[in-house]
C-alpha cells in the first residue's frame, strides 16, 4: 500500500511539473508572437534613430560617436553636383543634406517635384556660414559641413541652353486653404509669413525674386513641396510658331 501511495504522489508531482512547463512555454510563444507583430507594424525613421543613437552613446560610451546631422559628401555625389542635368544635381544635393525626401522628375517636361519634412527644410535653409559646393574644386574627394542654401541657389541659376530654373514652395495645411482663409485668417497669415521667410532667404543669397513662387495647399502639414521648372519667359507650341511665321510672311 505504501508503495502504491508513493507511486501516486510521484505521478502527481510529475503532472504538476509538466503543467508548469507547458504554461511557461505558452507564455513565451505568446510574447514572441506579440513582438513579431509589433516589429511588423513598426516603421523606421532615420532621423529619430540617429538621435536615439547619440543619446545612448552619450550615456554609456567613453568615446562618443561622431555623427554629423548631414552625411559627408562622397566623391560620386560631389561629382554629380558639378556635372549632369540640373535635376540630377539637385537630387544629389538633397540626398547629401536632407535625411528623407520623395522626388519625381520629368526631364521631358522640365519639371521636378520634391516633398520633404518641413522642419528639415527649415533647418537646412537657416544654417549660417554655409558653403557653395559648386564653387569648390570637383577634384576634392570629400566635403563635410553645411552647404544647402548657397549650393541650391547656384544650381538653380545654372542656365541650361539659356534657361534658368524656377522654384515653387508650397506649404501644407490640414484643411482647404480657402476655408482657413475665411475661418482662421490669423493661422493663414502666420503660414504665409513663414513661407515668405523662405523666399527672402533665397533672395538674400542672390536668387531672383521673379523665379520664386510661394503658396499653400491641403496636405500633411508636417511636409513641404518644392517644385522646380525650367523657366521660359515665353513658350510657343509648334502650331503657334507656324502661325507666327505665317503672320510674318504676310506682313
Overall residue-averaged pLDDT value:
75
Please state the overall shape, judged from the principal axes of the Cα atoms: elongated
Instruction: Calculate the terminal CA-CA distance, rounded to whole Å.
Output: 131 Å
Helix/strand order: HHHHEEHHEHHEEH
Please give the order of strands in the largest beta sheet.
1-2-5-3-4
Architecture (CATH level 2) name of the domain at 75-230: 2-Layer Sandwich
- Main sheet: strands, sense, barrel: 5 strands, mixed
Number of strands: 5
CATH topology descriptor of the domain at 75-230? 60s Ribosomal Protein L30, Chain: A
> What is the C-level CATH assignment of the domain at 75-230?
Alpha Beta
SS-based class: alpha+beta
Which key terms come to mind for this protein?
251 residues, alpha+beta, 60s Ribosomal Protein L30, Chain: A, five-stranded mixed sheet, 9 helices, disordered C terminus
Secondary structure topology:
Layout (H helix, E strand, L loop, with lengths): L1 H40 L4 H15 L14 H8 L3 H12 L4 E5 L4 E7 H9 L21 H10 L7 E9 L3 H7 L1 H20 L7 E7 L4 E8 L7 H13 L1
Parallel strand pairs: 3-4
Antiparallel strand pairs: 1-2, 2-5, 3-5
Helix pairs in contact: 3-4, 4-6, 7-8
Question: What does this molecule look like?
Answer:
- This protein is an alpha+beta fold and 251 residues long.
- It has a domain at 75-230: 60s Ribosomal Protein L30, Chain: A, CATH 3.30.1330.
- 53% of the residues lie in helices and 14% in strands.
- The protein has nine helices and five strands, in the order ααααββααβααββα.
- It has helices at residues 2-41, 46-60, 75-82, 86-97, 118-126, 148-157, 177-183, 185-204, 238-250, and strands spanning 102-106, 111-117, 165-173, 212-218, 223-230.
- Strands 1-2-5-3-4 form a five-stranded mixed β-sheet.
- A hairpin with a 4-residue loop joins strand 1 and strand 2 (111-117).
- Helix 7 packs across helix 8 (185-204).
- The chain is elongated.
- The N and C termini lie far apart (131 Å).
Amino acid at each position: 500500500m505504501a508503495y502504491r501511495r508513493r507511486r501516486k504522489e510521484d505521478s502527481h508531482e510529475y503532472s504538476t511539473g509538466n503543467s508548469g512547463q507547458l504554461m511557461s512555454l505558452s507564455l513565451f510563444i505568446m510574447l514572441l508572437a506579440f513582438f513579431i507583430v509589433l516589429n511588423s507594424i513598426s516603421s523606421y525613421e532615420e532621423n529619430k534613430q540617429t538621435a536615439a543613437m547619440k543619446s545612448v552613446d552619450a550615456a554609456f560610451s567613453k568615446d562618443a560617436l561622431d555623427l554629423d546631422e548631414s552625411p559627408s559628401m562622397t566623391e560620386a555625389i560631389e561629382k554629380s553636383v558639378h556635372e549632369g542635368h540640373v535635376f540630377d544635381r539637385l537630387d544629389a544635393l538633397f540626398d547629401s543634406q536632407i535625411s528623407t525626401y520623395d522626388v519625381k522628375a520629368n526631364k521631358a517636361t522640365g519639371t521636378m517635384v520634391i516633398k520633404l519634412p518641413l522642419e528639415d527644410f527649415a533647418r537646412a535653409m537657416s544654417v549660417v556660414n554655409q558653403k557653395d559646393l559648386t564653387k569648390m574644386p570637383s577634384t576634392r574627394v570629400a566635403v563635410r559641413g553645411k552647404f544647402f542654401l548657397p549650393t541650391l541657389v547656384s544650381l538653380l541659376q545654372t542656365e541650361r541652353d539659356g534657361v534658368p530654373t524656377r522654384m515653387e514652395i508650397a506649404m501644407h495645411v490640414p484643411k482647404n486653404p480657402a476655408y482657413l482663409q475665411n475661418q482662421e485668417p490669423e493661422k493663414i497669415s502666420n503660414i504665409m509669413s513663414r513661407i515668405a521667410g523662405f523666399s527672402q532667404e533665397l533672395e538674400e543669397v542672390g536668387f531672383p525674386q521673379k523665379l520664386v513662387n510661394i503658396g499653400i495647399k491641403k496636405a500633411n502639414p508636417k511636409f513641404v513641396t518644392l517644385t522646380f521648372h525650367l523657366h521660359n519667359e515665353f513658350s510657343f507650341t509648334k502650331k503657334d510658331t507656324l502661325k507666327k511665321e505665317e503672320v510674318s510672311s504676310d506682313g
